[in-house]
Amino acid sequence: MLRPFAPSDDVELLCELASRELPEGQALHGDAHLYNCIQTPAGPIWHDLETACRGPREYDLAALLLSDRSGDSDPEARIAAAAYGNYDEDVLDQALPVYAAWIAASFMVAVARRPEAAPALERQLQFLRRFRH
To answer: What residue spans define the domains of the chain?
Structure first.
């Protein structure tokens, strides 16, 4: 996704974070935030499955909790995470920058078409810079 961009510290950061290895896992939604969950009479249904993948379940939790963990309070996401069951907080901490790097790369691509996305990209990059080694 980032190949068209000129080399920069931000592109290098996103590539480094996105390439971090996570533990083996299971089938995942890949972008499991609450906007990708539709409430139906039969119960909640996930949609927007183009990023389905395999990995630790904490990767889907990273998608759910990214806004809350990056500074925008999201009580609904915390409630959903509490209902999720047992999970490994250390693996969640590992998965969060991997997922967030993918989101930031998506914003980077989108800014060319939607300049109004630039502030969201900058917020994501500021959050991710603290994970640089």
So the answer is: 9-129
Residue 35 has pLDDT above 90, yes or no: no
Q: Which fold has domain 9-129?
A: Aminoglycoside 3'-phosphotransferase; Chain: A, domain 2 (3.90.1200)
Q: H-type helices in 1-133, by residue range? A: 9-18, 57-69, 75-83, 89-111, 118-129
| φ, ψ dihedrals at 44, nearest 5° | -70, 145
Q: What is the pTM of this model?
A: 0.87
Paired tokens of 128: 């991710």
For residues 31-65, one letter each, b for 16 or more C-beta atoms within 10 angstroms of the residue's C-beta and e for the rest, the string is bbbeebbeeeeeeeeeeeeeeeeebbbbbbbbbbb
Does the structure show a pLDDT above 90 at 23? yes
Quote the CA–CA distance of 108 and 118 in Å, as a whole number.
8
- Backbone φ and ψ for 43, nearest 5 degrees, come out as 120, 180
Residues whose CB is less than 8 angstroms from the CB of residue 99 and which lie 6 or more positions away in sequence, other chains included: 59, 62, 63, 66
pLDDT of residue 80: 87
